[in-house]
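Any chance you could type out some protein's one-letter sequence along with its backbone structure tokens so I can compare the two?
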Amino acid sequence: MSKDLTIVKKPITITADAKNKVYGATDPSLTYQITTGGLEKGDVLTGSLTRIAGENVGTYEIGSTLANVNYSITFVSNNLTIAKATQTITFETLTHVQDVFDFTATSSSGLAITYTSSNTNVATILGNTVTVLSVGTTNITAQQAGDANYEAAPDVVQVLTIIQFGEDQDILLSEAVQVYPNPATNFIRVDLDTLDKARIKIYSITGKQLLEVQDYTSKEILNISSLKSGMYLLKIESDTTSTMKKFIKR
């Protein structure tokens, strides 16, 4: 009387290897170890390891479609961990060529840069715009604090030296042009001296443009009643020259 020989599946345990990468990098190859049992000579597993989709910083479980009809597979998962990437700031040497100008530092991550001035009596900053207020030296620090996917960048400091207020201005024009009354309450006038007309721009001390008048004629009234009390910068521009003045609004 014959009997059947029953061949049962061989149990094995497959354990995924933990993997790591930084944000923005290519995934490493997903690998595994057979930690219990083993494949018989010539046998192979079909399928592959996969992970949960996503590219932001975080932990992503590794899964498996590995199979062989002759094996009972126990799969032990692991994780792919995505860490924050580092970043750097490029901030070139500063040269004073205008009294209101924009910084142009960049980060390798593409994230926005913030700036601070160590001496706000010399220069103030609003966004990317610096406004020069007086002769002196200030350290301008470019910073990028990072986000969910990037570490904070190392700060970069550049020295801004102001030898002369109104670096871009016509010195003779600066001496000739007068703003009055100064301090003022509701209005000011600008004596343009030899200029027929000019563009007038008023800035806050943080560099925000508050008013612009085209084709201003000498001694015409400029209404400043809407401005808050404080110091302001007034830029006088023609097609060929310019100068900067300060005035105080009471």
